[in-house]
Amino acid sequence: MCRTEALKIARRPYDTTPPKKSGPRVNEDIAVPEIRLIDEEGEQVGVVTTKDAIERAYQAGLDLVEIAPNSAPPVCKILDVGKLKYQEQKKRNEARKKQKTIEIKEIKLRPNIDAHDYDVKMRNARRFIDDGDKVKVTLRFRGREMAHQELGARVLQRVRDELDEIAKVEQMPKMEGRQMVMVVAPR
User: Fold this and answer.
1) How does pLDDT run across 126-136, given as a tens digit for each residue?
2) Rg of the chain on CA atoms, in Å
3) φ, ψ of residue 12 in degrees (nearest 5)
4) Which of 175, 183, 185 is nearest to 140 (CA)?
5) In angstroms, rounded to a whole number, what is the distance separating the alpha carbons of residues 169 and 136?
6) Closest alpha carbon to 149 in 180, 115, 182, 172
7) pLDDT value at residue 74
8) Which of 24, 45, 51, 79 is the right S-S partner for 37, CB 3.0 to 4.6 Å?
9) What are the tens digits of pLDDT across the range 142-162?
């Protein structure tokens, strides 16, 4: 390949198609001959040509927006596009505010935990579950406690029984190295 051919290839435009717009089609982007029109007051006008509908929208100082593109003929409404986009953005933000992110809180226990310490841990677990969070109950074994894993299993069984009315076990107790782990989630 000679140098001039390489320059010609380098100058070629990659893509000449216009970028796709997000959202509903507006005004001249509506490429069908006839539409079902709804005017600015929400009254149904009927089936009209797209050109007439666009003229009507311009006379009202608004835009022609395609509301239902899949119907035959497509349904279009005369309204302000900026206001429509603003309202949609507001709805999305409101939905995002209402979302609850579920966190996993952890409670660490020992096989020979004292009764008072156990009560404090259970109070915290109940509070976490009431807040809508999952609780990971970790029971850690040290030294010779590994030989008596049934003690740890009993402690986790006691936790499961106490939280049974407000939570369900999402992950049954299982050994992970020197600790036994169980996950409970709100009902």
Assistant:
1) 999 998 899 99
2) 32
3) -65, 135
4) 175
5) 10
6) 180
7) 87
8) 45
9) 988 888 888 888 999 999 999
CA atoms in the 13 A half-sphere facing the CB of 72: 0
- List the structure tokens of 51: 């050109």
Say how far apart CA 3 and CA 8 lie, in whole Å: 9
Q: According to the 3-state scheme, what is the secondary structure of the chain?
A: CCHHHHHHHHHCCCCCCCCCCCCCCEHHHCCCCEEEEECCCCCEEEEEEHHHHHHHHHHCCCEEEEEECCCCCCEEEEECHHHHHHHHHHHHHHHHHHCCCCCEEEEEECCCCCHHHHHHHHHHHHHHHHCCCEEEEEEECCHHHHHHHHHHHHHHHHHHHHCCCCEEEEEEEEEECCEEEEEEEEC
